Amino acid sequence: MVNIKVLRIDQFKSANTFSDFYANMIANHLATSHLHIEKPHRHNFYATMLFTKGSGKHSIDFKTYDVSPGSVFLMAPGQIHYWELSDDADGLIFFHSQEFYELRYADERLSDYAFFSPVQNIQKIALTSGQSSEIETIIAEMMQSELGGTAMRNRYLISLITQVYIKLSLFLGVGQNNEETASSSYAAKFRSFEKLLETNFREEKSAEKYAEMLHMSAKHLNRINKSMVDKSTSEIIIERVLLEARRMLIYSNEPLNEIALKLGFEDYAYFSKLFKKKTGITPSQFKAQHS
Questions:
Q1: What are phi and psi of 261, to 5 degrees?
Q2: Are the C-beta atoms of residues 251 and 4 closer than 8 Å to each other?
Q3: Which fold has domain 5-172?
Q4: What is the model's pTM?
Q5: What is the DSSP-derived secondary structure letter of residue 211?
Q6: How far is Cα 115 from Cα 122, in angstroms, rounded to an integer?
């Protein structure tokens, strides 16, 4: 079993580290955190990284992305990742806790942004040089913030974080190409489904049950999900279950049938068949590949 670490913000030290916020140049971050980044690990905070120099690979939840200037990576708490970067890699990075951001907004949630959605799963955004310069300027301002007083400083930092997230959303063009997707009604119902799924996917895998919990027909929920992410309700549910299965297979030493049981499958044979159908290999083969 791989020993997976869960990192906290207070493990990273820089002039811009507070109890629930951290910002640094990537080169400085790598110099002080070299042992962390090349081994698979999780965070208990939100992370955003903009690369301005260098190259490499960044693996997030079993998908590998190319690193190049203009690459932005965004991660929510709990995701497993590691980097392999060239010696000249640099850019800017910032972390913050959920409480730091959301306690100051009554009507906004981080999961409302597509890149922090467990369903939409947008981990990398490729920016133009102009877009990259815009984001770089804002993160640099976070690092230079010297406003007096904790409350005032936090408000200012949160305003800068929000600018980054809004600009990245605009650069993505989320919801701009489909009027139905952009409607507040569809977006709100989709977010409600996401939250229900994240809470219940281990116990409940029926599209009809989620529709019932949301007080709508299964057909209507399917229409919403197809409009938002071009996936059926059932596809979204199974993808979330299998992501957790892959995490547990690699980072847990529990027997395979216990993993299946914790994911709501009393019949291990059925779990194994479903896993192979969706991934091409059995759970035991997947575990052996990553041992």
A1: -65, -40
A2: yes
A3: Jelly Rolls (2.60.120)
A4: 0.74
A5: H
A6: 5
